[in-house]
Design brief:
about 120 residues, mainly beta, 6-stranded antiparallel sheet, 1 helix, 10 strands, globular, disordered N terminus
Length: about 120
Amino acid sequence: MKVKLVFILSLFISLAVQSQQMRIGLFDKYKLQRIQFSFNSGDYSIYCDSVFMGTITANEFVDITNGYNGSISVKKGALDIGSYSKVRLIQKSNNTSLVLTPKAPVLKARKYKDDLKFTLLVKDL
């Protein structure tokens, strides 16, 4: 019994140590200039260059646009938040999701679960 418990614990610990963060490109075949993300389920915190900028809740949306000089312009509703080098959306609880809607070019919206990070790659989002 002790041997089984030790084996299971060591397996669990080794899996936890081996876990890695994955980077997945959404809409990576397109040169996005503007994308809007909005509430689908749960709340998300917005961080621009590691600074907390607020929370996205029901009936709210955020626009990010390819800005000037290699920056990302961020608007929450009609409020211009500013321009930054990276934008992160962090879920406040499990099983939350956002709707991502590319506006330039116009593409079909996608729902996405988990955290998101936007960076500019060669002047595209």
